[in-house]
Amino acid sequence: PDVEKKPIQTMSGYALEAHSLGLLLRQPDLLYRVDRAFLQENLDRLSINDFQHSDHQTILRLLLESLEQDMMEPLQYVMNSLSLPMMEVADDLLEKTKDLDISDEDVFEDLKRALLILRRNRTRQSVDYLSFLMIDAQDKGDQITQYNRAMVENTRVLRYLDKALANYFDRTVQSRV
Q1: Consecutive H or E run containing 122
Q2: What is the pLDDT of residues 32-72, one digit of tens each?
């Protein structure tokens, strides 16, 4: 089955990244809307750290750069900056999202939800890793102060992400009733 046809919550991390990037490549101005929505939820703007796969990080970095320049259209800027193998990745991302109507508010809501899920997964992994580091440091008798600060921040972010996702799911359920 095509990636874009599967429900967002059942997609793998790679598929969520690909789906999101495909939409953002098609309509780079969606980045501004995503950032605005994230800021309203007390979350940081979208960044390359929200993506785990290096090819996706590269494309997002170029997409963010493309919005800061005014010499070319954003997609043209991205494509001109990519190596041939990376152009194939970008073409694949565009192909997978070609049948989606980017102006449809439901598509934008899916994009936000996909990006929230990606960030939540990444933050959850960070919490798990910090827990491991804290246990290891305690076993060695080392200080865990720096880990505590990072854990508090990650836990705070997780609360905001959970709230944002709950708000999204509440809106989705209400709109279908």
Answers
A1: helix 105-140
A2: 999 999 999 999 999 999 999 999 999 999 999 999 999 99
- Indicate the length of the chain as a whole number: 177
CB-count burial class (<10 Å; 0-12, 13-18, 19+) for 147: buried
Long-range Cβ contact pairs of 59-64 (< 8 A, separation 24 or more): 59/21, 59/25, 59/86, 59/89, 59/90, 59/93, 60/21, 60/24, 63/21, 63/24, 63/25, 63/28, 63/31, 64/31
How many helices and strands, by DSSP H and E, does the chain display?
7, 0
Q: Is the CB of residue 82 less than 8 Å from the CB of residue 101?
A: no
- pLDDT, tens digit (0-9, with 9 covering 90-100), for 128-156: 999 999 999 888 888 888 899 999 999 99
